């Protein structure tokens, strides 16, 4: 099995695309017709470049609108076919993709279609080439791979076979089990793409929104599992038409492409009980700590803030300028070191969350999987706590279950702290990251390929200055929750965060509590500045959720927002003011509610925008 990518998936000139594919470690590249037509390189020169970089050209594509055409278009299509075959001979490429006909002139007469395609097979046989027939989801007649497979069987020619593309099959909701009916020897090639589940014209959906397997909502894993089950061992090729990929780094998309394919092969092998080359997705058990890199001038203010939230200093690091703050079993680490990683982090991002510590089922296996999938891993000062590079250059430490207390005790001079009282923070609820739009899919793939997490449907959130897309990623038990936000709107809060903090990072940290009003009262009494929520919102919430006068008065007094899911599970939340106009804290109470209060996000963002710093004229 080889890994391939279509040139259309990558940005730049044909030469850029070939170089990026080779550098990322692909075995093969598909040349997209227009990429070749637009290139000043001849077929021979292209072949030499591909070969010199250690790649092969596994497919030329697409060839369109051939079968069932009336004359003279039919004769012209066959002339064009011969010309493409000439180019392929020069390119050293032996497979052509033929799309099912999309012309309104295409005949649905099966014997004619079969006769035309058999003739294609004959011409291909003369030249020693193979043609793969692909059912496009929007074709005039043949838009289902089951129909294309029937036709391939009827054509019954050794130089004519089937080409499968997961986008077309899954956009048409063709069941993956239908692949079991296909003879793997007749599959000429397989293209893979994922996509967000959208209700959209299929051509537009395909040409603009495809993404890498592991970035969308299709069951591409099931697709590849069925292909593996029937014994298909040919190339798996990424064919991603995506507006964002066209304008982003080819190197990034190519690297993510290899990660995506290797994670997919691993998942398929696991589903079939076959041997695998890497440990499975790391199971996250919980968040052990969140670490801040703290600039000296921010130290007092940050300590006052977290003290107001109910944290107390529980220890000093034995050798570094690092302190541990605790509230019950919730740990914050403040790193003031003037060397090493935390210093480098704060010099670029300012005082910020620079690392998180995740408890996983097996930390060594988590590191091996990250490395197998191209992740950057770090050996840290604490050998039992290795790390994986995360967004914005942050670190994701991985710890084994039960190892944390020993690490705290050996690294820190611990001092006893008062047990957390009534209405205290009881744990981390979620982390929110802001990323550039260009990196949004890349970081989604990172979490989904390395860790055993699921995604929720992406939410559109209205910021007063533009639309923000928010994607929740979490584990099955809800002990790890992350939301990822990105926008093209230059002035939205998450964009301002990105420009002020020099790139992607953790923008807010949410804690959960069992008694949110009690927590809200306690943090206010200790001086935490909270985000005011308008009375208009509270008037609506009272009526909408049928709140009692007393409950409504409490939410109003404490600036608490509320949401309810379809089953009546409640979510209550309030926010701190931002620290240094940068990151902020959220406090939530949830019972059976799985979301993040998305309907309240516009209220919160509008409240936050009232505190924004106007740019200098
Ligand atoms: O959008 C298209 O026309 C197109 C072309 C070639 C393909 O392989 C495909 O899946 C779609
Ligand atoms: Mg295709």
TrEMBL record:
Q: What class of enzyme is it?
A: lyase
- Please report the stretch or stretches of sequence annotated as the VOC domain: 427-576
What Pfam families would the database entry show? Answer: AP_endonuc_2 (PF01261), Glyoxalase_5 (PF14696)
Citing just one GO molecular function, the answer is: metal ion binding
Q: What is its EC number?
A: 4.2.1.118
> What cofactor does this protein call for?
a divalent metal cation
- Keyword presence, Isomerase: yes
Q: What keywords does the record list, in alphabetical order?
A: Isomerase, Lyase, Metal-binding, Pyruvate
Q: In which pathway does it act?
A: Aromatic compound metabolism; 3,4-dihydroxybenzoate biosynthesis
Which residues are listed for Mg(2+) binding in this entry? 430, 508, 586
Write down the chemical reaction(s) this protein catalyses. Answer: 3-dehydroshikimate = 3,4-dihydroxybenzoate + H2O
**BP GO annotations:** 3,4-dihydroxybenzoate biosynthetic process
Family statement drawn from the similarity comment of this UniProt entry: Belongs to the bacterial two-domain DSD family.
What's its job?
Catalyzes the conversion of 3-dehydroshikimate to protocatechuate (3,4-dihydroxybenzoate), a common intermediate of quinate and shikimate degradation pathways.
Recorded protein name is 3-dehydroshikimate dehydratase
Species for this entry: Novosphingobium aerophilum
Organism lineage reads as: Bacteria, Pseudomonadati, Pseudomonadota, Alphaproteobacteria, Sphingomonadales
């Amino acid at each position: 099995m080889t890994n391939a990518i279509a040139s259309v998936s990558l940005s730049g000139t044909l030469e850029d695309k070939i170089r990026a594919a080779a550098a990322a470690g692909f075995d093969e590249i598909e040349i997209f017709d227009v990429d070749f037509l637009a290139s000043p390189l001849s077929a021979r020169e292209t072949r030499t470049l591909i070969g010199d970089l250690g790649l092969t050209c596994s497919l030329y594509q697409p060839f369109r609108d051939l079968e069932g055409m009336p004359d003279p278009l039919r004769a012209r299509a066959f002339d064009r076919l011969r010309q493409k075959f000439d180019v392929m001979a020069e390119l050293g490429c032996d497979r052509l993709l033929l799309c099912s006909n999309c012309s309104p002139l295409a005949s649905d007469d099966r014997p004619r279609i079969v006769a035309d395609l058999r003739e294609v097979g004959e011409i291909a046989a003369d030249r020693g080439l193979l043609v793969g027939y692909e059912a496009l989801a929007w074709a005039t007649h043949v838009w289902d791979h089951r129909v294309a497979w029937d036709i391939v069987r009827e054509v019954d020619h050794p130089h004519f076979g089937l080409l499968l593309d997961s986008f077309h099959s899954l956009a048409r909701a063709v069941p993956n089990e239908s692949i079991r009916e296909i003879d793997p020897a007749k599959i000429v090639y397989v293209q893979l793409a994922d996509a967000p589940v959208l209700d959209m014209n299929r051509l537009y959906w395909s040409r603009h929104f495809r993404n890498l397997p592991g970035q969308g909502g299709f069951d591409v894993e099931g697709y590849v599992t069925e292909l593996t089950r029937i014994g298909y061992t040919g190339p798996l090729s990424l064919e991603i038409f995506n507006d964002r990929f066209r304008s982003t780094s080819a190197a990034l998309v190519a690297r993510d492409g290899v990660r995506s394919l290797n994670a997919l092969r691993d998942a398929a092998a696991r589903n079939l009980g076959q041997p695998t080359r890497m440990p499975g997705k790391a199971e996250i058990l919980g968040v052990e700590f969140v670490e801040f890199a703290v600039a000296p001038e921010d130290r007092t203010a940050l300590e006052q803030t977290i003290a107001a939230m109910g944290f107390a200093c529980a220890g000093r690091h034995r050798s570094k300028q690092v302190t541990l703050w605790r509230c019950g079993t919730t740990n914050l680490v403040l790193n003031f070191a003037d060397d090493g990683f935390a210093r480098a982090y704060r010099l670029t991002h300012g005082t910020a969350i620079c690392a998180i510590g995740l408890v996983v089922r097996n930390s060594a296996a988590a590191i091996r999987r990250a490395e197998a999938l191209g992740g950057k891993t770090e050996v840290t000062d604490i050998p039992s706590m290795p790390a994986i590079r995360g967004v914005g250059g942050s670190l994701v430490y991985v710890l084994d279950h039960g190892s944390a207390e020993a690490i705290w005790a050996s690294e820190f001079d611990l001092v006893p702290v008062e047990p957390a009282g009534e209405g205290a923070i009881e744990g981390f609820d979620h982390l929110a990251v802001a990323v550039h739009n260009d990196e949004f899919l890349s970081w989604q793939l990172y979490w989904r390929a390395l860790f055993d997490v699921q995604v929720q449907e992406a939410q559109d959130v209205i910021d007063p200055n533009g639309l923000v897309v928010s994607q929740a990623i979490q584990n099955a038990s809800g002990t790890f929750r992350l939301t990822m936000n990105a926008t093209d709107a230059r002035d939205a809060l998450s964009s301002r965060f990105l420009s002020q903090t020099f790139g992607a990072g953790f923008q807010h940290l949410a804690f959960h509590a069992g008694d949110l009003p009690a927590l809200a009262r306690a943090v206010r009494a200790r001086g935490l500045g909270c985000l005011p929520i308008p009375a208009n919102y509270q008037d609506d919430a009272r009526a909408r959720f049928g709140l009692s006068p007393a409950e409504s008065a409490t939410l109003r007094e404490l600036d608490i927002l509320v949401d309810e899911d379809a089953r009546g599970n409640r979510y209550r939340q309030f926010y701190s003011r931002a620290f240094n106009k940068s990151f902020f804290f959220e406090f939530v109470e949830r019972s059976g509610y799985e979301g993040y209060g998305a309907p309240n996000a516009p209220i919160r963002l509008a409240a936050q925008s009232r505190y924004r710093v106007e740019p200098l004229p």
